[in-house]
Write a structure and sequence with these properties.
alpha+beta, 4-stranded antiparallel β-sheet, 21 helices
Length: 692
């Protein structure tokens, strides 16, 4: 009797204790979560590796008198030619800017050859590294520079571009969170068909997001982890997407167990024992894949690894502790109007996935060959992917800094409007200046500030920014000035270093991710063949998703380039997330085999029992990443599109047809060299807890 009473008290107290601990944790982490957006760094140099030449230039600039400079270009333009009054207006406004701010030099106008444009380079060290001060300076100059009577006035340059980029990232967190919550809400209502149940996982996902933001802020403060607007936005998507997936699996199993257990507490314990191992394995796979990004040379990629990892782990902890506690406290009524009664049987329905599996099993070799050929054909679309994305093409809605850049490129074809910055030791600055001026592709070079043993030299190339001609000039400058101890940086040099680092990281990270995921799958499935099959499937999905992107980005969306980081990031996410669904399917297939089912029956039963949940989870995850396509930045649109398409391919083609048919064809060889690959009587000796 005493044991029974103790058990009853535990059933009552444990859920309340869990909820109480989470409320206390929210009180503690809430203020830290609010600081997450404050530590995001979105300058191009914040993405670069420490060893990059352009990073060295940016650091040396901080040590010069006045610190980092904010460089702008005021562009005055009138079709048909500027009038005398236009030039007077420009001179007056530039003088007003000089009077309002502490500029490094008196701006001097540079007219275009046809007299239709006048540009004034403007530079100030007054804002320094403070982002708010820099934005205030840019906005203040824009407030002064104003055109009337048909005179076009634009404020561009690296400083204006940085401000415009920063303003976009400022809006990402809130917009992305609201949009993702809206999409997940609609999908959960459709999946659960309940007016109340959808609120529970959604609220828990919100708590997980707060925990992840607080952890991200803590990592930045304690370990100086780089957090960018991109990694922060992707973390939000991961928390809500992965967290909702875990909730779908748990709630589905909990509903099933409520028909077998009278008390919700007992049903939840059984549900956690059943699907907990698969959820732990899947989250561990994603976390391991993301942690491989720590080996990246690029600061933004190496920072995204731990930031994404804490997002996944926060979702895991919330969905396996807080969600079960809340569901137990709410009882069966949370499922209204489809309440699972104790002792009842689920309503018999014709399973779509059972029908799909049966049709695939009739001619498994033909289905497998056809699916593989389809993925291969789609992957050919990667040949249509454009070259690296330029800064001016990174926005879906072009801000003022980009239109100014386009005007300058058209009106000043003989020189770049965005200077390269050379930092040379002061005792060798004169020789470096002469060498820069004599370098092929250089239109002009002038010496600027000196301090801390370095001298700043501004170099104007004859080629337009981020073109092949300017790239050759940058490489020639670096080769020619290397003996002078100089570094070459600036906006275009930063983009070149970004692309080089991305290329290096792909060669290092891709094998690491494959190795880490393979080891986890071997330990989980106790096989070598099944993990290799799953990895081959997700790699094929990645290639096909990128190929579809190649058929869509430029022909349909008009994007004129591909973000250099798209291949690596999409690979990491699609491999790690795609293997998740393979784990759910294979784990159930293994369970059926352990219970004595023949290989074909085990594969079809696993598909029938897990297909609906995996499909729902895949749709939710794809929809959350698809939200990225609504943002005004092309790199995020491309990344969201590729991952969303890849998840859908993985869910409805690879898991349903290819993995199932491969399992039917391989039979027990699927589990080689484990016991399941041998005689049926050996199988009964190896029992495992019941998974999904």
């Amino acid at each position: 009797m005493g044991d029974a009473r103790t058990h009853v008290r535990r059933r009552r107290l444990v859920p309340w204790a869990v909820v109480g601990l989470w409320l206390a944790a929210l009180v503690l982490v809430g203020p830290l979560a609010g600081k997450f957006s404050e530590v995001q760094q979105n300058r191009a140099v914040d993405y670069l590796p420490d060893s990059a030449d352009s990073t060295q230039v940016a650091r040396i600039q901080d040590e010069l008198p006045g610190g980092e400079s904010t460089d702008l270009v005021l562009v005055y333009h009138r079709d048909g030619g500027l009038s005398a009054a236009d030039r007077q207006t420009a001179a007056a406004q530039v003088a007003e800017v000089e009077g309002a701010y502490d500029l490094t030099d008196t701006p001097r106008g540079i007219p275009s050859a046809d007299g239709s444009t006048l540009m004034y380079p403007v530079s100030s060290t007054e804002p320094g590294q403070d982002e708010e001060a820099r934005n205030a300076f840019v906005d203040g100059v824009r407030g002064i520079a104003d055109g009337t009577g048909g005179l076009g006035v634009e404020v561009g340059g690296p400083g204006a571009l940085g401000t415009d980029m920063g303003k976009v990232f400022e809006t990402i967190d809130g917009t992305l969170l609201l949009a993702t919550l809206g999409v997940v809400t609609v999908l959960l209502v459709l999946i659960y068909r309940s007016p109340f149940l959808w609120l529970v996982p959604l609220a828990v996902a919100g708590v997980a997001a707060a925990l992840a933001m607080a952890a991200g802020y803590g990592m930045h403060e304690l370990f100086d982890v780089t957090i960018t607007g991109q990694s922060g936005g992707i973390m939000t998507v991961l928390v809500l997407g992965a967290g909702t997936d875990y909730a779908l699996l748990l709630v589905s199993r909990y509903r099933e167990e409520l028909r077998r257990h009278e008390r919700p507490y007992d049903a939840m314990c059984a549900a956690l024992r059943g699907c907990g191992p698969a959820i732990l394995a899947s989250s561990g796979t994603v976390a391991a894949g993301l942690l491989c990004l720590l080996a990246a040379d690029l600061n933004s990629s190496s920072g995204m690894g731990p930031v994404g990892m804490v997002g996944v782990l926060a979702a895991l902890v919330a969905m396996t502790t807080l969600l079960p506690a809340v569901l137990v406290l709410l009882g069966r009524r949370v499922f209204w109007p489809l309440i699972p009664a104790f002792g009842s049987a689920p309503k018999a329905r014709r399973s779509l996935f059972a029908a799909m599996g049966t049709s695939a099993a009739r001619r498994p070799a033909a289905v497998l060959a056809g699916g593989a050929a389809l993925l291969g054909a789609l992957a050919l679309g990667t040949l249509n992917l454009s070259g690296d994305l330029k800064q001016e093409d990174s926005f879906t809605d072009r801000p003022e800094s980009i239109t100014a850049m386009e005007t300058l490129a058209e009106e000043y074809p003989e020189r770049s409007s965005s200077p390269l910055t050379v930092m040379a030791p002061t005792d060798r600055a004169d020789a470096a200046l002469r060498k820069a001026r004599s370098t092929e592709g250089v239109a002009d070079a002038t010496a600027g500030r000196s301090g801390a043993g370095w001298t700043e030299i501004s170099v104007f190339a004859t080629a337009a920014p981020e073109t092949a001609g300017e790239t050759r000039t940058i490489e020639a400058l670096r080769d020619g000035l290397d003996d002078h101890g100089a570094h070459v940086g600036g906006l275009s040099a930063q983009q070149l270093d970004l692309a080089d680092s991305e290329s290096r990281d792909r060669k290092v990270i891709v094998p690491l991710v494959l190795a880490a995921v393979f080891v986890i799958l071997v330990v989980l499935l106790r096989s070598l063949v099944a993990p290799l099959l799953l990895l081959a499937a997700v790699v094929a999905v990645w290639g096909a998703a990128l190929g579809i992107g190649g058929l869509v980005f430029e022909p349909l969306l008009g994007f004129t380039g591909t973000d250099p980081g798209l291949g690596l990031l999409s690979f990491v996410f699609l491999v790690a997330l795609g293997v998740d669904y393979g784990i759910f399917l294979m784990h159930r297939m293994r369970e059926e085999s352990l219970n004595g089912a023949e290989p074909e029956a085990a594969a079809l039963t696993a598909l029938r029992t897990t297909g609906g949940v995996i499909a729902s989870a895949g749709v939710v995850l794809a929809a959350t990443f698809a939200v990225l396509t609504t943002l005004p930045l092309v790199p995020l649109v491309e990344l969201g599109f590729v991952i969303a398409v890849g998840v859908l391919l993985d869910t409805f083609l690879v898991r349903t047809y290819l993995v199932t048919t491969a399992s039917v064809l391989l039979r027990r060889r699927m589990w080689w060299p484990g016991r399941l690959s041998r005689a049926p009587e050996a199988v009964t000796r190896e029992r495992q807890p019941e998974p999904v």
